[in-house]
């Protein structure tokens, strides 16, 4: 189940991609299938080991085209172990709401992104998330849980402040909002409640079969109750004046 829409977020074979806070690896796997050179990074060592196993299985099964590469590694989002301008693409999906220093994470992503590179950020949407918080403290008051709810304008403003240029937004996973409302209403750890079990079966059917009726319903409902807010941005190249000044300074230094 992808949150990033790759029809709005173009990915070329050979692009170097960082999936930051990759979790179980869903976006990293898709980038690998599309021929990218993928680095999946997360602080959870257990999940990283599982992602590495899946990368190996995908390679063995021939699911990735020639030239594609995939690496899974543990790391800290606030101190990325990569040089400046290392990646063409950065994806961070459903992660920033967990991190106190979200501006620090944005700064690190911008640092490792090449000028002209693209970034996709997804977070829980304000309205559906507020319902979850109102229904259950246990939903967010846990170790590693959600510590903030973003409004769209707030997230976009932070991205601009970090030096990014947003170019598109949308919402995703409308069918998942009612599921989480039910989970919060009946207990986030209570998977045996009949409404929760029934709705979960519906979601599994939708994911596995992709029937037209649920695809159309979700497209219609995403603008209203989409569970995730998705923002796409680029890292601008240096302005022409600044680039010319950098060239002049470098030339002067070379002559000194």
TrEMBL record:
**Signal sequence bounds:** none
Q: Which UniProt keywords apply?
A: Methyltransferase, Transferase
Which EC number(s) does UniProt give? 2.1.1.164
- Pfam families for this protein: Methyltransf_11 (PF08241)
GO biological processes: methylation
**EC main group:** transferase
**Mind listing the GO molecular function terms for this protein?**
demethylrebeccamycin--D-glucose O-methyltransferase activity; S-adenosylmethionine-dependent methyltransferase activity
Q: Which residues form a coiled coil?
A: none
Task: Give residue ranges for domain Methyltransferase type.
Answer: 18-120
What protein name does the entry list?
Demethylrebeccamycin-D-glucose O-methyltransferase
Instruction: Supply the source organism for this entry.
Output: Streptomyces jeddahensis
Lineage of origin: Bacteria, Bacillati, Actinomycetota, Actinomycetes, Kitasatosporales
